[in-house]
């Protein structure tokens, strides 16, 4: 899938902003799609989505150790902040053909700008609670340890 440039995104290794394929079905709206191992570099083992969230809500405050993900927002507007301890970037998901591919451990926070915006995630693995880091100080240690190897 085509990478779409926003300069700041290239500042963090393991993040790409991606244009999801979009088919315009004339007069009847649009259809978006992506395929595992073709458009994103992993097999999709799990899909989850977050619904019924009011504007002004923050979620996240964690990182994943190994999980790879494509985040996308088929409806609404959600700001995703990604942090690798050296830098933080902020990406707004405001179009169904926009996706954030995350391939490295990054701390993330998501902010709902519009009521009932939907955040969808295509993930490379099943749900494992051990894959989460939910304390920033531990995330920092984890990244420093990875960098020293
Ligand atoms: C992420 C961001 C973008 C499950 O039981 N199974 C699942 O597959 C998932 C994803 C979550 N859960 C449980 C774990 C918690 O008890 O659902 C509850 C809410 O999860 P959490 O507080 O982690 O939700 P968010 O919105 O902070 O984070 C979620 C994902 O967990 C995470 O992988 O990257 O969305």
Short description:
The chain has 149 residues and is mainly β. The chain has one helix and twelve strands; from the N terminus they run ββββββββββββα.
From the structure above, extract its key features.
mainly beta, 9% helix, 5-stranded antiparallel beta sheet, 149 residues, globular, binds dTDP-4-keto-6-deoxyglucose, 42% strand, single chain
Structure description:
With 149 residues, the chain is mainly β. It has one helix at 136-148; strands at residues 15-19, 21-24, 30-33, 46-50, 58-64, 69-75, 78-83, 88-93, 98-102, 107-112, 118-123, 132-133. Strands 1-9-6-11-4 form a five-stranded antiparallel beta sheet, with no helix packed on it. The chain has a five-stranded antiparallel beta sheet with strand order 8-7-10-5-12. The longest helix has 13 residues, at 136-148. The chain is globular and about 55 Å long. The N and C termini lie far apart (32 Å). Bound molecules: dTDP-4-keto-6-deoxyglucose (T46). The site of dTDP-4-keto-6-deoxyglucose has 11 residues, from strand 4, strand 5, strand 6 and strand 10.
Bound molecule kinds, no repeats: dTDP-4-keto-6-deoxyglucose
> How many angstroms does the end-to-end distance come to?
32 Å
Strand order of the largest sheet: 1-9-6-11-4
Q: DSSP helix count?
A: 1
Structural class: mainly beta
Order of helices and strands: EEEEEEEEEEEEH
Rg (C-alpha, Å)? 15 Å
For the largest beta-sheet, the strand count, sense and barrel status come to: 5 strands, antiparallel
Q: Given the C-alpha coordinates, what overall shape results? A: globular
β-strand number: 12
